[in-house]
Amino acid sequence: MAPRPHSELNEPHDLLMPEKLQPAPPKPRKLQIVWLNVALFVVLHVGAVYGVYLFFAAAKWLTWLWVIFLYAISGLGITAGAHRLWSHRSYKATFPAKVLLVIFDTVALQNDIIEWARDHRVHHKYSETDADPHNALRGFFFSHIGWLLVRKHPDVKDKGSKLDVSDLQADPILRFQKKYYKTLAILACFVVPTVVPALWNESLHVAYFTAALMRYCLVLHATWSINSIAHMFGNRPYDKLINPRQNILCTLMSVGEGWHNYHHTFPYDYKASEWGWRVNFTTVFIDFLAWLGWAYDRKAVNQESIERQKLKHGENHHQHDH
Fold first, then answer.
1. Can you state the angle between helices 61-76 and 95-108, rounded to 10 degrees?
2. pLDDT in single tens digits along all 322 residues of the chain
3. Cα-based distances in Å from 237 to 26, 234, 240, 262, 302
4. Domain range summary for the chain, segments of one domain joined by +
5. CA nearest 140: which of 225, 219, 259?
């Protein structure tokens, strides 16, 4: 089935265009540590390290393939689903595609999509301010994992509560996921990944620590790397005035999300990159959905607008005086 063509945009077309706020040093504030979260993440990482050992020392080759498969689909649940579809509305999807992406996202276990997308919209609208949930100006550790170990900054709660997420709340698939999220997430992220390898006589012990804990931990770090590494290390060819960078390592880890200077400059582009399929498995997947007829109205920026942006604001270009 031939895919419906995507639409090229000359001007920003996004309800999430950022406020014209300049990044500023965060205000001093006593952090309230959530010790339960600290304990859970310590246990997860200890289990994941043991899972790495079992992966190489004991896991069957079919378990290797199963881990790679789970990593890919849970990554796509975040990137193609929670991020590009629901946070940015950069393309539209049919009912079967939405169900598939919600399943993938639930395997990833990074909060239900309504909450994930709300926090991500706040991140874009108030990037590198106190209202940004993982403000990179607070340092690498905070933006990578620390923000999940402490109470949210009051500005995050305030701005988040005022953000319009009625489009997300109106989606019955997302409402279903949110209502039953804890049960669904335990099944999708831990139980199913552990049980399925029994089909090829893998032990539940090895399956649990590799396909569940290790894989889950790796996907978390891939997502977190966009908030930390991709906001600190790399070049800024599209907008030198913002922190997000182009980072190939993050792109590889996150199945296509590391072209981050481009993404923050053009958040409404479904490719999240200027280069289409280049090191961007998520774009390949969305285009595959379009070929099936399950994705459509893929928004993209025309090349003329991209070149104009690079010339005017890119860090390797000189701005002309007018």
1. 120
2. 444 445 555 444 444 555 545 555 666 667 899 999 999 999 999 999 999 999 999 999 999 999 999 999 999 999 999 999 999 999 999 999 999 999 999 999 999 999 999 999 999 999 999 999 999 999 999 999 999 999 999 999 899 888 999 999 999 999 999 999 999 999 999 999 999 999 999 999 999 999 999 999 999 999 999 999 999 999 999 999 999 999 999 999 999 999 999 999 999 999 999 998 999 999 999 999 999 999 999 999 999 999 999 999 988 764 443 3
3. 26, 10, 7, 8, 16
4. 29-313
5. 225
Q: Which candidate, 226, 208, 30, places its Cα nearest to that of 127?
A: 226
How far is Cα 179 from Cα 274, in angstroms, rounded to an integer?
A: 37
> Which residues neighbour 90 within 8 Å (Cβ) at sequence distance 6 or greater?
84, 267, 268, 269, 270, 272, 298, 299
- CA distances 204 to 5, 8, 128, 200, Å, are 46, 49, 43, 11
Helix 113-125 vs helix 172-179: angle between axes, to the nearest 10 degrees? 110
Please state, in angstroms and as integers, the Cα–Cα distance from residue 43 to each residue in 48, 145, 205, following that order: 9, 15, 16
The tokens of 18 are what? 């950022």
The count of C-alpha atoms lying within 13 angstroms of the C-alpha of 288, restricted to the half-sphere facing its C-beta, is 10
3-state secondary structure of 274: coil
User: Tokens 């923000």 map to which residue?
Assistant: 147
Rounded to the nearest 5 percent, the helix, strand and coil shares of the chain are 60, 5, 35
Return the structure tokens found at 55: 């992966």
